[in-house]
Amino acid sequence: MYDLLKEYKVTSLMFVYSGDFIKTLGIWDVIKDACDRLGIDFQECGEVVPNPKIELIRDLVAVCKEHKTDFVLAAGGGSSVDTAKSIALGIPYNGDVWDFFDGSAAPETAVPIGAITTLPASGSETSNAAIVSNGLMKLGFEDDMIIPKFAIMNPKLTYTLPKYQLTCGIVDIFMHTIERYFTPVHGNELTDEIAEGLMRTLIRNAAKAYENQEDYDAMSEIMWCGSISHNGITGLGRPKDFLCHKLGHQLGAKFDEAHGATLSAVW
């Protein structure tokens, strides 16, 4: 982490995560030590929740503006990474960051982002998308400028996940793939093979990981599936409407349920 923060010439960091498990895993100590050694102004927030809220993002954007934050780092799952992406959009913008999600404005730039994945699910560590809740509205924004500059993916960081979160994440990965796969396009053979291979790999290793979450190889395959499922490669050559995702988002916003759970219900 020291080398990465040094490479990106970070002078002021906002570190976002969800709960004290980041400290239990030792991630917090590594980040803080790197910032201390590099003389980086260190700000943090461990209050990220599933279905990340625009209110927290607005508050953190204000803190970042005050501290002239030039890098946002997330640790956790998609909610933490999406929070970081949203903050990164809001820092250089003079208006409300929600403007980008409701389509009333388009960003010109964003602060760079990094990700440390502890929950294989959304693939947000390699995607160009962020999803945020505002009351009963849950909307997404997509732009390549919010793709993280780096993603650290260590299967050992997933060993203590509750099984419910693990299975919700697996559903999310599968849904990212089949939302692209089931489209009225023929002759797209290589993209089909990539998607089918991903789904087979996920099914095999999901069963292994559910029985033994300290199966390094199985968790490694699941993490890689998560990234590939949402970085665009399984959708090459075909359209996507992501209707199940859009319905799942609204259910998540209304009932504050895990994304994978609402996707499973809709599908």
The count of DSSP E runs of length 2 or more, i.e. the number of strands, is 7
Largest sheet: 5 strands, parallel
Strand order of the largest sheet: 2-1-3-4-7
Q: Globular, elongated, flat, extended or rod-shaped: what is the shape?
A: globular
Label the structural class: alpha/beta
Task: Give me the Rg, rounded.
Answer: 18 Å
What order do the SSEs take from the amino end to the carboxyl end, as H and E?
HEHHEHEHHEEEEHHHHH
Low-confidence stretches at least 5 residues in length (pLDDT < 50)? none
Strand content bin: 5-15%
State the helicity in percent bands.
40-55%
Please state the average pLDDT score.
96
N-end to C-end Cα span: 39 Å
Instruction: Figure out the total of helices.
Output: 11
Describe the overall structure.
- By secondary structure, the protein is of the alpha/beta class.
- The protein has eleven helices and seven strands.
Keywords for this entry:
globular, 5-stranded parallel beta sheet, 11 helices, 267 residues, two-stranded antiparallel sheet, alpha/beta
Give the topology:
Layout: H1 2-7, E1 12-16, H2 21-24, H3 27-38, E2 41-45, H4 54-67, E3 71-76, H5 78-90, H6 98-101, E4 113-117, E5 129-134, E6 137-142, E7 150-153, H7 163-181, H8 189-211, H9 216-229, H10 243-255, H11 259-266
Parallel strand pairs: 1-2, 1-3, 3-4, 4-7
Antiparallel strand pairs: 5-6
Summarize the structure.
With 267 residues, this protein is α/β, with parallel strands linked by helices. 49% of the residues lie in helices and 14% in strands. The N and C termini lie far apart (39 Å).
